[in-house]
Amino acid sequence: MPNLGDLARFTTFAGAILLALLCFILMFSWSAWFFWPFALFAFLSGLGLFDVTQTKHSILRNYPILGHMRFIFEGIRPEIRQYLIESDQDEEPFSRDNRSLVYQRAKDQEDARPFGTRMRVYDAGYSWVTHSVQPVHIKDFDFRTKIGGSQCSKPYSASLFNISAMSYGSLSANAIQALNTGAKLGGFAHDTGEGSVSRYHKAGGGDLIYQLASGYFGSRAADGSFDPEKFRETAALDQIKMIELKLSQGAKPGHGGMLPASKISREIAEARGVPMGIDCISPAAHSAFSTPIEMMEFIGKLRALSDGKPVGFKLCIGHRREFMCIVKAMLKTGITPDFIVVDGAEGGTGAAPVEFSNHIGMPMTEGLTFVHNTLRGAGLRDEIKIGAAGKIVSAFHIARALALGADWCNSARGFMFSIGCIQAQACHTNRCPVGVATQDKTRMRALDVTHKSKRVARFHYNTMEALGEMTGAAGLHHPSDFLPYHLMLRQGDKSMVEGSDVYGYLPKGFLLDDDAEDYGDHKSRWKRASAETFSPLE
After folding, report:
1. Rg of the Cα trace of the chain?
2. The pLDDT of residue 362 is above 70
3. Could you report the per-residue pLDDT of 409-427, keeping only the tens digit for each?
4. 3-state secondary structure of 49
5. Which neighbouring-strand residues pair with 173?
6. Do β-strands 127-129 and 311-316 pair in parallel, antiparallel, or remain unpaired?
7. pLDDT of residue 102
8. Model confidence over 474-522: pLDDT tens digits?
9. DSSP secondary structure, 447-509, as one string
10. Cβ neighbours of residue 3 under 8 Å, at least 6 residues apart?
11. What is the pTM of this model?
12. Where are the domains of the chain?
């Protein structure tokens, strides 16, 4: 039942209709001069009726008449943006520019802009891709990578750009179905998030990555533990192409979650396999394993139960030694995941404690480099693919991640923008103005699945096309050819450094060779890591 106070957003529309009727009556009963206010309010009433029935703009469907104010302000946005850039107001220039880029690509609009870059090219931290005087013309932008090692019998050919984990419950039914339908149209994958596979994922028909987190939703026993038979049933769905074991996420690593009973609808309970009327708990840690070896054995179990589908895990790097413990367990058990998704601390979420989102977890660039080089040092990099997630929106973000060791990228923020997210930051209030992050049916109806799914597919296609053009400009034939030396980074005034000097690849097998050179403190940390426990060795 919608909150009656929340329906106040239709007050302007209702007021225009009432005033039009009043002026119409007064025009015949008092004075013909009331024709002019009648014409005005009749026009506004017609505009409001058009707003609530059109499918292109979610804002107008939820805020008829009043929503047009947003588009008026957008008309002077270039001047506002320039002011923000010059005054350096937080991260707003990044958010605005990237959101605008996604909107343009999702709408299939021209994204070329005059007067050069808006980036601060002289500031420390600015980075760019080096180009070649012999660019390559690339015709096919359907870039893919095969995920599935020697222990996997059903490898998956994944796009280099996919939808990152966002659960049904966090996002609305219409948002989930639009994202998945877009994934189907564009031929890429959609991560379910820890909320499991809902009827809206299935309705879309797109490829799914089933995320299994500490709550084991979709594979959950009555006591909250992992249920192998329920997992086997869920994983058997043809739509599910890979299984992702979530250890942590960048936005709030080491933090569990709770969905209050009041927010659990019948459809959410169905998807997650939880009862209604009881708070739904996501513990901070898994109950199915407690040691690195047990974790690898659990991954092997998931692969067997899913009949050989690719199985991997996702994490934001915290204690680096603990990741080395996991790698040592791979070597000791002989069980290796098919992939690892590295999430960065800069990743987003609907709600998280400020300290967790701002000050816990390793940023994606450093985490990706560490994971890549640790696997190289252990001689396992060729067996395991790496995905990267964390504020990835543009083709440059993808190219940079690939150069630093990733095999593919996931994006949540970019695909949310593509279905109309305006970063109102009301995700946790259930009052999302565009129907993306809400369970209010009167709000989510503003998000038209047919229209927005096409925008999802267009955003993916146009971003891949931009990646192809960037790849060709660098003189390369495929994005996987990017290496650290294709990146340059500004350290300060008149100072720049090659990416390979900062994020270079370390030699294969150096962690296993006692005579090999140490790089930083990798080998000393490796010696303190154990396959039997996550605790440090003395």
Report:
1. 25
2. yes
3. 999 999 999 998 888 888 8
4. helix
5. none
6. unpaired
7. 83
8. 999 999 999 999 999 888 766 889 999 989 999 999 999 988 888 888 9
9. S-HHHHHHHHHHHHHHHHHHHHHHHHHTT-SSGGG--GGGEEEEEETTEEEEHHHHSPPPPTT
10. 440
11. 0.88
12. 8-71, 158-468
Nearest Cα residue to 392 out of 368, 373, 370: 368
Q: How many helices (H) and strands (E) are present in the chain, helices listed first?
A: 20, 15
What are the tokens at 289? 């394993």
Cβ atoms within 10 Å, residue 85: 17
Q: Report d(CA 354, CA 352) in Å as an integer.
A: 6
Provide CB contacts within 8 A for 271, sequence distance 6+.
168, 169, 195, 196, 197, 198, 199, 217, 218
Report in angstroms the alpha-carbon separations of 219 from 58, 282, 411. Answer: 35, 13, 25
Amino acid sitting at position 350: G
Structure tokens at 123: 């500031």
CATH fold, domain 158-468, is TIM Barrel (3.20.20)
Q: What is the DSSP letter of 168?
A: B
How many C-alpha atoms does 54 have within 13 Å on its Cβ side?
16
Q: Closest Cα to residue 274, out of 210, 231, 224, 322?
A: 224
